[in-house]
Amino acid sequence: MKNKRNQKILSAILALVFILGVTTPGEILASGNYQAESDPKLEIVAFEELAAEIAAQEVPLGTKKSELNLPAILIATVKLAMEDEAAVTDAVYASDDAEFDSIIYEKDVQEEDSSAPGTMEIPVPVSWKSIPEYDGDTAGVYTFRAEISGFTLSAVPPVITVTVHEEKLQGTISSFEEFEEDLRWQNTKNPILPEKVRGIVEGKVIDIPVTWEADRDYDQNFPESGLYVFTAKLGEGYVLLPGVEAPRITVYIPPARKMTLMLAGNATETDPLIITTAAQLSEIATLVNMGRLETFIFNNNEAKVHLKIGRDIDLSSYGKNYRSGKGWMPIGTIDNPFKGQFNGDGKTIAGLYIDDRSLEYAGLFGAVSEGKIENLGLQDIYINGGDYAGGLAGYINNVTIERCYVTGTVNGDTAGGITGKVCGNSVICNCYSSVSVSGSSNAGGVAGLIESGSVESCYAMGKVEGIIAGGVAGKIENGNVENCAALNFNIAASSVVARVVGDNQGTLSNNAAFTYMTVTINNNPKLPTDEANGVDGQNIDANGIKADKTIGGRFAPEGGWTTETGKLPGLFGKAVDIPAYIEDKTDPYFIGQGTEKGPFLIATAEQLVKLAELVNKGDTTYNSAYYRLMADIDLSVYDNSNTSFNGGRGWVPIGKSGRSFSGTFDGDGHTITGLYIDDAGMSGAGLLGYVSGGTIKNIGLKNVNIKFKMFKEEDDCSQNF
User: Fold this and answer.
1) Among candidate residues 304, 181, 314, 301, the one with its CA nearest the CA of residue 250
2) By C-alpha distance, which of 486, 477, 527, 539 is closest to 504?
3) pTM for the predicted model, two decimal places
4) Would you tell me which CATH number, out of the four given (2.160.20.110, 1.10.3730.10, 3.40.605.10, 3.30.830.10), belongs to the domain 312-572?
5) Across residues 257-270, what is the average pLDDT?
6) Average pLDDT over residues 568-595
């Protein structure tokens, strides 16, 4: 219904342009031909929120109005205010600004959600008027209100507040002098927060006045014990050069009963140190990577630090705009690994972002040794690292990871959804991963490489790609995988591949795998075996998964799992929705439902052959359905050397005269190679033969060799296929 409304709205826009005799929507208002009484009214129902740095601006005396950040265009949600809103409910927009016009034609129309049918977001030209009238030479607060013409407003336009200071800017700070370590890291009830910090301003070393802001509530007279991160707020008139961070001071206030000589704090097993902010977690990473966490907290490098998450944490402030776009710095390096215990307490960490192919040991944790990570969820992560990349940890040695889950994307050399490399007597148990994993070496849904150690009662979803790839583990050199389930959609490798473990030199027992998983090696399908103690695991289909909420007893409540019939086992009181590629397995030939939202998924040459067979015999279930390629496909196996297929005449196109293809074929950016046809009696030769009313998109063909008969006169485009 929404698509039909959008088509009507776009038609209304074009009609309005032609009627008024103008060439751009921007000229509609400028032409004076727009009649408010008869033309569709444009109603603005909402404005996009202004960025904080635009909504509240501080400038020095002498700043001209033209130097203020007053956007000429706002993004607004609009609709056509018409009597027959059922027929047309979206909006037409216009401006008299040439730059705005170019934006209009380049901007994709985006609909709001179902709660606001018939609306769309568009750029709207505005002017700004201040109260009082702006005078950059007079200090004070000026309120700018957006003025908009040609629209009916049912939303309050944004307001920009500009404060003109008495003093001019003192200068731009290009760097700060590093603090002495006893100032930068303080274990005390009475922290020292200097009133000035030394930095370079306009090429000169000066003392810069600052105040300090804590990352959480801080009572100077009666401070609670725990970790505080203080960030410097610059004195008036100073600004930071882009990429320069304000100084920090991290303070650990130990419990009152243990104030003597910086002795043990509350980072103990019975009284763990509570982490509640992203800044605190970042400072923990810095301390660990310096090899100073234990001495900072306990003044004892041999002590064990116990950390606990006190609330859900968003790491997006350490994402794309942090470390010059490289994002989060992992906790622990191979030289200074994290050695403590980290309890997520059922909380989640979101916004983890790393984009640094030079970074080894990439993850929330980089390297962990002799430690433990438990009860933690990582949501919607993105990691693009170097060797040993994993959602929770790049590398673990003699570590236990239990009752954790990860969702998102992990790329690296040796990559895994939970961890990249497993060493020592490490154990990963009662965890699940819904991660798209890509490894240029070993890749696994849970672990990329198990050098030694075990993965127990874990399952993985998503797709896995690598030189060596497996749904649970890419490679085992010396270890075991038991009671696990590979529920992945697709596993692809160029060298060694299997559903559970790609390359196994360890021990496998009682593992299962989704029966209809697509497994390919060099883009060719690999037929799996059905063996619980083998690399491909025991077959389990959608009905079996739905009927047995513990998946064969592998994920029982005793292990911390939350189970619910019709769903996958989950953690922390919430079962997991079965993914569409499993839920939709109702077709005997393809995964999916053949709809736009649930297309039939094709990943092998055999599936393409089956598609051609079904369409060409006139099966209406398939000739008008939606299809999506999930992998590159090589059709060269169907060339003239294969006389058992089509008599050596090559590929049989999808769709023929009288039985055309009328659905949607979405290549999803993949490539089909080796298409061969040599059939003098064939008309309509190609990957698809006859297409009527269908859509073919996002597909590439390489190494095509087609010899075909001339198109028959009766097969012209006026014929009703």
Assistant:
1) 181
2) 477
3) 0.62
4) 2.160.20.110
5) 55
6) 83
